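Trying the structure run again after the queue cleared.
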Amino acid sequence: MPSEPEPIAVLNAGSSSLKFSFFQGASVVCKGLVDRLGSAQSGARAAIRDADGASLFEGPVPARNHEQALAWLLDWLRQTRLALSPAAVGHRVVHGGDEFSAPARVTPEVLDRLESLVPLAPLHQPHNLAPIRYLARQFPQLPQVVCFDTAFHATQTRIERTYA
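Done. Tokens:
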């Protein structure tokens, strides 16, 4: 009997939200979001659904930022009937600059180079990198991969990328 594939997490950290999906093989186990991050007045809220769209959780969460939201999510997942703990994580990152045109495995050097691109996308890049840093500190052996919005333009000529 073949064993069940290990869970893989996919994260998309926006300016005030953390969207996520967990997969086992090609099957979605659950997906959702934590939003209102950074909102002092309304507080963060999460909505998590299973593969069929049934609600698993909906309500307030004790998180002010992306790291706290991710910590809460991982803890919640471990304590539920899902008992999920990711074997690897994929991240959406807005800017890969000219250097990153394909998915890359996160290393300290890659993270440093992505940090240097913050001035190119100051409203998004810091939020994209926060969950990566958190996971690297908390789970240093956990494989992480980054995929870039700017990779779309990698096949264009320099003139096409420079001028609209």
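The chain has one domain: 7-162. Worth checking whether this holds up in the mutant runs.
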